[in-house]
Every structure is written in C-alpha cells, then in structure tokens.
C-alpha cells in the first residue's frame, strides 16, 4: 500500500529517510544504479568522486556545510518498505552488490588525525569492519550470531517491546531477524552514551546490511504472516532508528535505506588494507594521454588559488602604504635623524 507515503516506488528502491535542509534531494521518479550508491554517499558527505554522478535526484549543496554522519542501511529480501516519513524515494535499477569501502578510505585519508567513526556491519554474515573511534565506542556491540542471540535474553532486549505476533523466539530464521533489530537498537543506545561523537569535526560513516527478511521469505514465503509481521516491524524500527540517529547528530545526518529483493550477482569482497594508497600513474601510453584525474585536485587548486590571492593583496596593500608614507612622521629612523641634525 502506498497511502501516506511521500514517494511510492514499486520494485527495489533507495529511500532517503532523513537529511538536513542543506543536503538537497529532489522528489522525482529518477532511477539510480546500485553501483552509483557509493558515489551518491560520497557526494552527500562533501567528497569528490572520480566520475560525475549524472543523477538529478541530488543537487549541489553549500561548500562549507556538510552533514556530520551518513548512515546507509541495506535491507535484503524486500523491494520496498512503508516508510511514511521519508524525505524522498527513488527506483533502484541494476541492483548489483556494492560496498562503501571507497568512502571509508576517503574518510580515513582526509581525517586520519581526528579518528572518525567508520562502522560496516552485516550481522547475518558476522562481518564487521571498524575504524577510528568505532573501536572504542562499539567494542561491546555483539557481532556474532551467538553473541546477538545471547543479547536477546538480557535486560533491555527488544523482545520485550516488539509485538512479535506470528514470529517465534525459537525458530532460527525468526531469531536472525530479531537479532538484526537488536543490533539497530544497540547502535543507537551506544551513540546516546557517547554523544561527544557528534561534536567533533570529522564525519562518521555507518553501513549496515540486514538479510533477516530474506531468510524469512525463503523459510515461510513472502505471503506468510511471519514475513508480513516482520516487514511491518522493520519499517517501524528503521523509522525510529533514523529519527534517533538524526537527532543525536543535531539534525545533521543523512540516513538512507536501500531495499533489494535480490542482488543480481554475489558480492565478492577482496581483502585489502585501509592504509593502502592507490598510485596515480600513466604507464607508458603510446597516445601521450594525460594522467588520471585525482579527486584531490579541486582541494589543492582552491588552496593554491586563495593563497595566491591573499599574498597578492598583501603585497598591494604594503606597497601602497610604503608609497604614501611620510618619512618625517611615519618613520622613526628619519625622525631621530632629523633631531640629531638639529642638535648638531
């Protein structure tokens, strides 16, 4: 049902759950490719990308005002969720698997001294990647399925607050879904405990992948009451999760939800070091082509340009004052010399 939903999109979709006013998402039915999601995230955070994003959904924002955090949640097993309080929603075409590794490397290279929070988590695959302050903030976050299921039986568990209805506390597929809901709850709880994260100058990056609905659909079918109840629960949980994160960062965070029923190809992750730097080179081109474009060029150009302008203005002002200076009144050397001549 599409009632009360700001943007009704059939099929796989990208939904902007929260965004500050200065990050301008235009409402419209403009599809975006799955492989372009990392570039879109990078642009919302004020970073440059190697290829221009020719997508009218995101407009250019102010240069010196950027969000303090970006949170991307990928939900597998469902093509859309009823999120009535979203900013905008767009169709997702070519739903190939993607990661935010490139964005994480950019955050690390530009803000290494500020130790920003970078958290990439997929509970179903027990995949976790943390960088910077995330190592200290989320050290108590349950990662393995065994740890998360143990967390469900402790105080403060989401089981006490959720209307489970057709879901069971004993079935494996149901526990996987509830475990992912618990992880979302624990992330917001840890962020509320460490509110200082929103006050530093480095942007934070969160990437979460949830596949509990996919497992429920495979186990019970997408017409089952378990799947319908889980879809409703997840929509409400994500809505509250987005509002909590947005408020914790002082209304300066972008929260996106990508819903994908099925990825077109399996995701292959290559192990690499975040400290590696890619060398920009031109290995003997016979056509005498230019070097590859470096996305830091715009930053370096602005630094050099404004520094040259400031130095030129300083030289002009100093020269003007020296030219119009009265040696008898403005210079202590000439003043003392004149007094000595008079005494003699």
TrEMBL record:
UniProt-recorded Gene Ontology molecular function terms: signaling receptor activity
Functional note: Multifunctional protein which functions as a renin, prorenin cellular receptor and is involved in the assembly of the lysosomal proton-transporting V-type ATPase (V-ATPase) and the acidification of the endo-lysosomal system. May mediate renin-dependent cellular responses by activating ERK1 and ERK2. By increasing the catalytic efficiency of renin in AGT/angiotensinogen conversion to angiotensin I, may also play a role in the renin-angiotensin system (RAS).
Domain of life of the source: Eukaryota
Domain Renin receptor-like C-terminal transmembrane spanning segment residues, every copy: 269-344
Name of the protein: Renin receptor
Pfam families membership: Renin_r, RENR_N
Recorded GO CC terms: autophagosome membrane; clathrin-coated vesicle membrane; dendritic spine membrane; endoplasmic reticulum membrane; external side of plasma membrane; lysosomal membrane; synaptic vesicle membrane
Keyword Manganese: no
Membrane topology: Single-pass type I membrane protein
Major subcellular location class: membrane
Ranges of residues in domain Renin receptor N-terminal: 12-261
Organism: Esox lucius
Bilayer-crossing regions: 297-323
One biological process term in Gene Ontology: positive regulation of Wnt signaling pathway
InterPro entries the record matches: Renin_r_C (IPR056780), Renin_rcpt (IPR012493), RENR_N (IPR057318)
Localisation per UniProt entry: Cell projection, Dendritic spine membrane; Cytoplasmic vesicle, Autophagosome membrane; Cytoplasmic vesicle, Clathrin-coated vesicle membrane; Cytoplasmic vesicle, Secretory vesicle, Synaptic vesicle membrane
Keywords carried by this UniProt record: Cell membrane, Cleavage on pair of basic residues, Endoplasmic reticulum, Membrane, Receptor, Signal, Transmembrane, Transmembrane helix
Subunit structure: Interacts with renin. Accessory component of the multisubunit proton-transporting vacuolar (V)-ATPase protein pump. Interacts (via N-terminus) with ATP6AP1 (via N-terminus). Interacts with ATP6V0D1; ATP6V0D1 is a V-ATPase complex subunit and the interaction promotes V-ATPase complex assembly. Interacts with TMEM9; TMEM9 is a V-ATPase assembly regulator and the interaction induces the interaction with ATP6V0D1. Interacts with VMA21 (via N-terminus); VMA21 is a V-ATPase accessory component.
